[in-house]
Amino acid sequence: MVCLMKAVFKEKPAPGAVLKEVDAPKPGPNDVLIKIDAASICGTDMHIWNWDEWAQNRIKPPMIFGHEAAGKIVELGSNAAAAGKLALGDFISVETHVYDGTCEQCKRGNAHICENMKIFGVDMNGIFAEYAVVPQQNAWVNDAALPPAIASIQEPFGNAVHTVFEGGAPSGDSALVLGCGPIGLFAVGILKAIGASPVFAVEPTPLRARIASQMGADRVFDPRTDDYVKEILTATNGKGVGAVLEMSGNGGALQNGFKALRPGGKMNILGVFPKDVSLDVSNGIVFKYARVHGINGRRIWDTWEKTRELLSERKVDVRPVLTHEFALSDFEKGFAAIKAGEAAKVILKP
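The chain above was modelled as a monomer; its predicted structure follows.
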């Protein structure tokens, strides 16, 4: 029986967080309790850490935050045990979108946009802790041989998988990734794994630009100095790329992405924008016959199946993106490294 644990708390409405010793959570009938083996810091966690406008309007301290994790089941609720799908010792990753399974979207197979969605570490306590309670429906059982650090990043990797594959995988076609945070970097690796060529990337941060090249980008542009739309059009004989993946949340990048998109191509948008963006809809979308998809989360569980294939068969090597690892007690070092532009993906281990 687990009694106490250490956890990272957003204790008050201000920048930063604290490490506290608190009572360990107890699983309800439909839950499992996991001992966290590895957790990773997400861009959402940075918003919460910095206490920006988004966090101020969404987060209600005090709470444990963090949502990307992998660990072993140490206790099952009564219904979870009776269902027989999960067992003590199972090594799981967490699907962070907690869906109700009963709303219209869930019935249509769109649990990733459930009408009553809750998100770990945002709308409920998260996983920057030694233990966490997970609804049995949100547990994805991993191969026991999968390294914990890699198992913990399947949620953001899944975002990249969803963004690449939605609307048809651009295998053998050209592609452009706008913004190379960890998800954009994963997307570069996925595009190369499925045979997209050439793959262009846009990223101003030197560390992330270097990693984008390691992940297989054929050309990485610095938006501060490069006229990358002109250069991409030149490289594609004036046609543009077949797929643009917007991951930056930058209005200028989105506008340029439509300019670089080939007629009949697809624009998949995962980036979240802080304010309205002006677009030339007629020339950028209508006359180009462009297919535009908004991407939210991962298709449950279709995206996870694709993720398993890409990782277990080593089609994508994510290790260049996992730049730092710290003990949970040193979580502040992880947040500082990301904020300083010195890290891509940071892993925390209790």
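The chain has a mean pLDDT of 97.
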